[in-house]
Amino acid sequence: MYGAAPGPQQGRQMPRMLKTILVLALMSVPAWPQRPALACTVCLALPENSLADRLLSASVIVLAAPAPDDPFRYAPVGLLKGSWDEVADLPQIPFLVDSSTRNALRADPDRVVLMIYGPGRRDKAGRAFDQSWTKGFLMTPQRADFVAEVQAQGQGWRLDGSRSAERAAFFAAYLNSGDRLLRNTALIELHRAPYASARGLRDAAATPDLLRDLRSLNRVAYAPATIRLLGLQSDPAAAEAVRTVYPKAVATGGFNLREWALAGIEIDGDQALSTIKEALTASPLSPKDRQAIIAALIDGGDAMPEHRGKILDIFAGEIAHDQNTAGQIALATRDWGDDTLAPALRALLADPQIDPATAFAIRVALPSGQ
Fold it and tell me: Where do the structural domains in the chain lie, given as residue ranges?
């Protein structure tokens, strides 16, 4: 049974396609490509933990099916992680077998559902203080292989760790999967990955698939990942798609601004940076939109050293415009090996009206003696 250790109870089958809880914030995207950006009518928060995070942090992973003595309750029938003694000490799986699962069981009584017992919500420091069951998905042979590979390769994975590029490359292999759940998982992982780690994955997805996703209101949740990947495509259709949107996006603000600005930098380089500089100088952007553009510039400077000079020039103007952004910029650029901003940052420290948090960030970022 999908590589699971046989369980103490006989298993039957599993749910049907349970929509993955891995859903990104439902953000609107400029409808393709002539219509203006549409505000989302419903917004869903991106889960704090991805599927891979939950699999790797789990203490127990089981395959479950309707219990022999109660067809509306799940019971473990296979073990992928942990021990049966541990399973016996855990609370009962709390989820009921819904109608779609029962229908799937009638079609194939041998299928099972993945259930994960592990950390629940995490605090801002990434610490988890509770453990609970979460429902995964209806298993297939391909998904079983995926779960096994994540467990085999993923020990020590961290989004910002030394293996972040390896993690991104692992999930990129699923971008063209025919299994929608696995493809969605890959999109989420590549959106979460540090941009410098994902940038090496050129042409990892098929441009027609990305454009189709971007046009579909049903796929609007994945727009940030789709836009990021479009910027990393090398074909003219992807470049044209990005050029159609990013100049207006940086001038007017709105949803997915960070992704459009960064994709523009990838496609047009210095030309895009000139467009961004003009927008920051001339456009009445909201503080939130300015923050999004600054974040895109930081991503671009981290991943593309050849553009750091022009980005630092933009940052100098931004610091002069709004000192509240100075701390973020100072910390983000301190490892770039360029002290262009140091005089402006030192001048801000001399201002008695400077925000204490901004002053602290600048002092941390400036080299000793600056």
Answer: 1-155, 158-234, 236-370
